[in-house]
Amino acid sequence: MPLTPDQQAEIETARSEERTTRRATVPGMEAHLYNAHEVLDHGFVRVIDYMGDDNAIVQAARVSYGRGTKAVQNDAGLIRYLMRHWHSTPFEMCEIKLHVKLPVFVARQWIRHRTANVNEYSARYSILDREFYIPAPENLAAQSKINNQGRGGVLEGEEAARVLDILRADSNRAYDHYQQMLEQDGQDGLARELARMNLPANIYTQWYWKVDLHNLFHFLRLRADAHAQYEIRVYADAICKIVADWVPHAYAAFEDYRLGGVQFSGKGVDCIRRMIAGEQVDQASSGMSAGEWREFQAVLKG
């Protein structure tokens, strides 16, 4: 179960409290507050707090007071303009704070986005739970033959069972030794900050992650992409659903121009123009490397 009984009790207490405020609130986000959206086998994402809405973005862009006389359609159009032309500061007026439970190896990918405020559960002070990410059989893949940081076909049969047995056995063995090294039965034991070094990268950690909408969109553009590693992509997908309820106009523009859009190099644009003109273009005449040409072709074919 992703949530401990204590965490669940804390959430129920928080959700039972009602507060009156003059600040902008969004009904969709109010429904998300404190709810845990389960991810992977033991993980979750939940909204702790948020600031701003679609109106905060257009208000910042116009540097105006209040909603003014602009129609909602104009607001949506302005947001699309801002997204289309890569404006950033208006989107920085909105912020969100998330509580995330995730495997350590996913956290190490995630933390490379150095544009957020993070406070992680400390294994120097506390003892980590015996919870490990073990892939579902359909996500147990071999190494890709053409991409050094990607996956190939799904492992099946005896090979899949062998790998899963190793993952489970090694995870539990490491945790057994972790417990044995800690203070017990009157022995001093090893300090927690040292004992943790024996734990595997698939053990779960937790953190609070606060980020503005501009940098969140950058995170989602990379991590909700089909080429992102599955284990971080499912967290990004869960966050996308939350953001769509928070800032629907901004998310629709992001989905259209970033998630659903593509960007071509100067050589790519030149090749497209030559193709439209009726010229036969191949990799040799494109000026692109073999890898770039392959990616270019993949975008054109859809």
TrEMBL record:
FAD binds at residues 89, 112-114, 120, 212-214, 218. One of its GO terms (molecular function) is flavin adenine dinucleotide binding. InterPro entries: Thymidylate_synthase_ThyX, Thymidylate_synthase_ThyX_sf. Pathway: Pyrimidine metabolism; dTTP biosynthesis. SUPFAM superfamilies: Thymidylate synthase-complementing protein Thy1 (SSF69796). The keyword Zinc-finger does not apply. GO terms for biological process: dTMP biosynthetic process; dTTP biosynthetic process; methylation. It comes from the Bacteria. DUMP binds at residues 109-112, 120-124, 196, 223. Residues 12-21 have a biased composition (Basic and acidic residues). Pfam families: Thy1 (PF02511). Its EC number is 2.1.1.148. Residues 1-22 are annotated as: Disordered. Its cofactor is FAD. PROSITE patterns: THYX (PS51331). The keyword Cell membrane does not apply. Keywords: FAD, Flavoprotein, Methyltransferase, NADP, Nucleotide biosynthesis, Transferase. Homotetramer. Belongs to the thymidylate synthase ThyX family. Catalyzes the reductive methylation of 2'-deoxyuridine-5'-monophosphate (dUMP) to 2'-deoxythymidine-5'-monophosphate (dTMP) while utilizing 5,10-methylenetetrahydrofolate (mTHF) as the methyl donor, and NADPH and FADH(2) as the reductant. HAMAP family: ThyX. This is Flavin-dependent thymidylate synthase. The gene is thyX.
